[in-house]
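Entry 14. Structure prediction run on the chain below.
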Amino acid sequence: MNSTRYRMSSFGRKTANTIRFLRPKDDLFQRVEFTPSRSFRSYMIMIYSENNLPLEGPTPVGKPPFLVRRRTVFTWLIPLLLLALSLTFHKSYGGWAAYGAGIALVVLGEVVRFWSAGYIAKDAAIATGGPYAHVRNPLYFGSLLLAVGYGLVSGLGVWGVLFTLTLFLVFHLAAIFYEEKFLTNKFGEPYLDYTRRVPRLLPSPWPRTTGTGRFEWAQSLKNREQTSALFALIFVLLLSLRFLIK
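Output returned:
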């Protein structure tokens, strides 16, 4: 055995400050503790929460790349930069048609994210039903729709869409690859079989698995998806100021 493993129970308590490792040494296990950074703890909790995983059991650990650890910060700053560009150049490429299409994509993106965040698999196993039967990363697909929608609403046309889409791919693809490696180490062959059936980011029009589960609003709210929806509403309203500022 050459991989380091630990128990996630430390992450389950807000007061926990250390992570307990079981490190292989001379065919035995040596218990090691360390104090992780707040961003690392938060990110690991997020992975478990978004994928409906139990907070117990051995799981491989590896420090996430910089783009993965800080992507939340950048995904809040990037729309603000788009807003600055929109209000600076005062463009309206595509007119009301592009604006309406952008609004529709933002709404659809939030619907997808709410559906994904509230879908609960039985026995706290990784979700394979509902939206997860069509695409492995439905939350990220919802974010992709939001990114394209923001680009259209900005009035910057193709340039706005390319701007948001490029930065989406830079930050979110890094997170997707990291999380898929994490889940592969966690579940092994069952998860690999799931990845062979279900596409990574662009959903299949028909379900690729027969996974079970159910949607619950409480789970969506627990994952603070309402915060994302509120931000989307405020951001669209701010982008709409370009119609008032000449």
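The first strand starts at residue 5 and ends at 7.
Filed with the rest of this week's runs.
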